[in-house]
Amino acid sequence: MKKYHVPTLIVHKRDGGVLTDAEIRFLVAGFTKGEVSEAQMSAFAMAVYFSGMTAAETASLTYAMLESGERMIHPAGHPSIVDKHSTGGIGDKVSLILAPLVACCDCWIPMVSGRGLGITGGTLDKLESIPGFRVNLSLAEAQEQLQRLGVVMMGQTEQFCPADKKLYALRDVTGTVPSIPLITASIMSKKLAESLDRLVLDVKYGSGAFMKTREQAVVLAEAMMAVGREMGVEVTTEINPMSEPLGHAVGNALEVIESWETIQGRGPIDLVTCIMSQTEKITKVVNSEQIKKIQSGQVKRMFESLIAAQGGDPSQLDSLAKIHQAPLIREVKSQASGVVVALDAGIIGQAALELGAGRSLASDPVDPRVGFDQLIKTNASIKSGDVIARIHARNEADASAAERAVFAALQLA
Ligand code: URA
To answer: Using CA positions, which residue lies closest to atom 2 of ligand 1?
Structure first.
């Protein structure tokens, strides 16, 4: 591989230049091997954030990241291999329910996800609140489990999407997440490495998403679809608002608890609607059939098998609230009566991060116990004194800050 002077490549991108395929591959390969430093890659990510990338550069970045690791190989005659990915939201726990549901629909789902990113929660952090659950699988383990169970939920590893593993963690703590080329390459490199037949992308927009407007979300969706098309994957997209949290819970263990309820047929309507619509797009199984699979307990059993296969103890799912009980749980009561017209997802996401659900350094652990549940939904009619949220916090000062955030997020008419 031809060598390039890395600071010159960063300066070129910073000043609005276009990099060649070879230059981008050199940067990504060097970063993966540790020859391009984290400081240099952070500066490069910030340069991309401000200067953007052409479609050709975005494709080069995606392929370079894809080629940083190995790809899944599926046996001849396999069922449809499908997946979904969200561009990130607040309370977005769709993957936890959708994955076992899809595995009950005669498809295989090798779901590779990420950790929390910016103010948005990550599937891996949520799953790790299930005691013992391992997201760090080898490719051989993942492929064996996929063939046996039809579902695997794992993270990027040294072997699988290592460039995204490193860059994802760096972007999370350097303010370089909301960039269309960086999001496209991050998501599509993981999804292409899964060797999929079909993919649905849930592209979020609004205060709790990286794309603030619907127009930006459409541009991101098109960028990801273009990369998917080129690689022969059937990609469909949904453009969904992220103006209020999805469901009633935000925070790692709290979201697993809500997911477990949903898997047992007791999910909030906005969450269930999202899950069913995306499942239908990739499996072609209609909603009424999906509901039967949930109500019969088939999806519950699949989720339990998935947890057991990855080292977790499914019998602890009913005890998660106790296992991860925060030192302090505070009810927030409305100070006025009216109809809820907004509960700003961006404000709630930022508050959850500050309660300890997210990171400020890549090496930070997340606190599985903290966040919100019983969050009120828009269109609800409430009276003064009604509970509009519960805060799970580590101490009084954190709880008070989160309470102020709930009032700032709430709009009544
Ligand atoms: N999800 C990802 O995997 N990467 C991003 O950059 C954003 C959401």
So the answer is: 187
